[in-house]
Amino acid sequence: MTMNSHSPQVTAGPAGPSPVVRIVMRPMTRLLNPLIGRFAGRRHFPMAARLQHTGRRSGRTYRTSVGARVAGDTAIIPLTFGTQSDWARNVLAAGGCLIRVDGQDYRATTPEFLDERAAFPVLGTFFGPVSRAGFRLLGIRQYLRLTVVAAGRTS
Question: Residue 136, exposed/middle/buried by CB under 10 A (0-12, 13-18, 19+)?
């Protein structure tokens, strides 16, 4: 899927998951992903969006559940497993992806990794105080910002 011809932005350096995520979340994710994947992106299921991306080496289409939120023409995704997760690297390499949030499909372009400092000014627009506290508790320090357009629209 060719989404964009310009180079993606990276303001956050390569980073893996925090120790809390490695020890606690990774095993839970293996158990919960199949269940969450069934509901991700559906209306009235705000905890998970469905992201469709293309493998940077295989060219295969993948679907991944993520905690995305959309406001206006921007989507923000907390990178629980850091900037080095395969799906995040695929989105960056492709210059975008498709994403379904709360039953609405979007074309997402101009991926940009943000560190905690760069993301801080906008996080309150996308996530409430409880979610932001959870990010800090889990050690989430990187985010992916995308420009989104509702699928089917031309601008």
Answer: exposed
